[in-house]
Amino acid sequence: MSKTVDFYFDFGSPTAYLAHKRLQQLGEQYGLQVRYMPMLLGGVFKATGNNSPVAIPAKGAYMLQHDLPRFAKRYGVPLNFNPHFPINTLNLMRGAIAAGRLGCMADYVNLAFDAVWVQEKNMGDPAIVSETLSEAGLDAEGIIALSQDPEVKAELLADTEAAVARGVFGAPTLFLDGAMYFGQDRLDFIEEALTD
Amino acid sequence: MSKTVDFYFDFGSPTAYLAHKRLQQLGEQYGLQVRYMPMLLGGVFKATGNNSPVAIPAKGAYMLQHDLPRFAKRYGVPLNFNPHFPINTLNLMRGAIAAGRLGCMADYVNLAFDAVWVQEKNMGDPAIVSETLSEAGLDAEGIIALSQDPEVKAELLADTEAAVARGVFGAPTLFLDGAMYFGQDRLDFIEEALTD
């Protein structure tokens, strides 16, 4: 019986990217299904009084130079810290809601995470987003148009508020069997829960 | 050939307590030696612009209810969140410097961590500290007297500044083979480095 994990993410977070890659591996290994839960990390931070770890210079330096590369190596996945960081992901996250409505959430999520954290693209730039989606064979025009729909915009805000109401204070956050896990570095607990 | 890890800690941190317990296990299993590096976590936070994770209410709730108990269970160690938290550990940390000078650092560290995070004592209270040290057969009078020596006080401040200069921004922080690791949840990387 395959389980489903709720994965709260924002493409602007390198740890959310690492979680995404690791969840794909757990999907292959254990049949874990992922329910993608887009949210605006900036909105979560504002609502909870939290902030990005890289806002602390010494912590940011440690993460970029040591911690993130260690986990990328452990998982065996590429990670190139995006030179445009921090990227304004508002429209990119709206695009995730739109992609969900158009039935291509998983492809969109995979594409956007790789564009930011492997290909180092400035995905805050609408032209680059459009080009990236088109090149991958996704319906760039349809996704981008729908991402500007007032209902889609409102849904992203409502989803962000719902995440906070559920206890989310950062990204990535995961829920499995009703239990909350914060951070890509807690996916070993997810794996344990899958193999129990 | 046994290795030595530099362990930066403050007794006020529950994650430093978990690291301490896990380091003892790694000592038994791999002969890992621990060099105790007392520091004032409040001073580190002030110098780096960092803050306690529990300062974010949603994060604090998650840590206390889920994250800390999960790791205590994984390590198989007791953890009782101290009802007097946050404890002012200034004199307790000065005591660690004093204990180091008197040749009983390891016993003192073990005792103080257990008093705070197992026995739930208010170790910010000098009378309770004195009683706890005495009951364990340590030289309470000698340690407490030396902890108020101006040189000892200055050493703790200098050690805290030196920690920050080395890149420390929180507790626990560990250095092994010149590499920095932040958090009790990175001790699996320490273990990997020991078994390489």
CATH topology of chain A: Glutaredoxin
Walk across the major sheet of chain A and give the strand order.
Answer: 2-1-3-4
Tally of discrete structural domains of chain A? 1
Question: What is the second-level CATH architecture of chain A?
Answer: 3-Layer(aba) Sandwich
Shape of chain A: globular
In helices, the fraction of residues of chain A equals 55-70%
Low-confidence stretches of chain A: none
Mean pLDDT, all residues of chain A: 97
Structural class of chain A comes to alpha+beta
- What's the helix-strand series of chain A? EHEHHHHHHHEEH
The helix tally of chain A amounts to 9
* Largest interface, counted by CB within 8 Å of the partner chain's CB: A-B, 25 and 25 residues
Let me know the largest β-sheet of chain A.
Answer: 4 strands, mixed
**Cα-based radius of gyration of chain A, to the nearest Å:** 16 Å
Strand content of chain A: 5-15%
Name the CATH superfamily classification of chain A. Glutaredoxin
Q: What is the CATH C-level name of chain A?
A: Alpha Beta
According to DSSP, the number of beta strands of chain A is 4
Task: State the end-to-end distance of chain A.
Answer: 13 Å
Q: Tell me the quaternary state.
A: homodimer
